[in-house]
Amino acid sequence: xxxxxxxxxxxxxxxxxxxxxxxxxxxxxxxxxxxxxxxxxxxxxxxxxxxxxxxxxxxxxxxxxxxxxxxxxxxxxxxxxxxxxxxxxxxxxxxxxxxxxxxxxxxxxxxxxxxxxxxxxxxxxxxxxxxxxxxxxxxxxxxxxxxxxxxxxxxxxxxxxxxxxxxxxxxxxxxxxxxxxxxxxxxxxxxxxxxxxxxxxxxxxxxxxxxxxxxxxxxxxxxxxxxxxxxxxxxxxxxxxxxxxxxxxxxxxxxxxxxxxxxxxxxxxxxxxxxxxxxxxxxxxxxxxxxxxxxxxxxxxxxxxxxxxxxxxxxxxxxxxxxxxxxxxxxxxxxxxxxxxxxxxxxxxxxxxxxxxxxxxxxxxxxxxxxx
Length: 372
Prior knowledge:
Layout: E1 31-35, H1 40-50, E2 55-62, H2 71-74, H3 86-94, E3 98-102, H4 104-112, H5 125-143, E4 147-149, H6 166-172, E5 179-180, H7 192-195, H8 213-222, H9 240-253, H10 260-265, E6 270-275, E7 278-282, H11 286-293, E8 300-304, E9 311-316, H12 320-332, E10 342-347, E11 353-358
Parallel strand pairs: 1-2, 1-4, 2-3, 4-5
Antiparallel strand pairs: 6-7, 7-9, 8-9, 8-10, 10-11
C-alpha cells in the first residue's frame, strides 16, 4: 500500500472524458477555460498558461452578489473609480474571449443551504468555489476544452484555499485533476495537464499565504500597471454589514428565500429597522436617489418637498404612526435636519400622495441598533 505524507495528498483520479468531442485533435493546441473574477490572481493565472502556448478563454459567473459594476456606478463617492466590469477588462488585457454566464437562480441553493457552512459572514466560500468549478467543468465538456484554471493560492483564504479543502473542490465539482491552480501548482500534487506535458510544471509557481506581494511583483514583471484589488474581494457576502442586512431580511420574513431585487436593494442606501414590521431604506446621495426611484411603485415612499433630501422606501407594513416615524427619520438625513419642521410627500403603492409635516428626528434619538 502506498502511503502519502500528510502534506501531500494523493492525486485525484480523473474519470473518462464525458464529451466525445473533448479530446483535442492531434497536434492542435490544448484549450483551457479560466475562471476570471476580475481580480489580480485570476489574471496572473491565465497569463501563466497563455505563456505556455495554451489556448485560454475566460468564464465569469454572475451571481447577483458581485461588488463591482453596481455600487461603484451609483455612488458619488465612487466616481473616481473606473466604471467597468473588471472581468471584461481583465480579458481585454489578456487578449482572450470572456463568457459571462448568469447563474443567479442556480446559485440560490449555494447561499441558502451551503453543505460546508458559512465563513465569518454569510459567505459560503467552499460551496461557492465548488459550484463555480462545477459550472466551468460542465462548460469545458460542452465546448471541447481540456482543463480548468483558477487563480487560487494555497493558504490565501481560510475556507476554500486550504490544503485540505482544495481537493474537496476538485472532487465535488467533478473536475478532479483537470483543475489546475497555476499560482500554487508546485505545492500541490500534479494534475493531468502537468502529467501529460500539456503544461510545464517547472514554469508554474508556488505562491503560498495571504501576502499579495508576490502577485504584485509578478504583475509588475508582466507590465500590468493597473488591476483590480489584489485580494479579489468581489462578493458582497464576505461583507459584514451586507451579511447583517441579509440575515435581518431572512429573519423578518421567516424564510431564507430571496429574489434578485431583494439582494440589489441590500447594496444601496442606509437601512434602518425602527420597528420589527418595517424597514426604511434611505438614499445617501443623488445616485442612490435615482436608483431607488426605480422601485418607488413597489413601496410606500417618502421625499421632502420643503428641503432638499433623500428618497426613502418603507419595506414592510406601516400604519400612520409608523409612517410619521419614517418621515421624521427621512427628514433627519436631508438638508432640513436642523429645521423645526420639514414637509414631505408620502406616496402609497397605489400612487396616492399626501403631505406630512414633521420635526426631524435628532441624531441622538436614533438608537444604534436601528441601523442595519
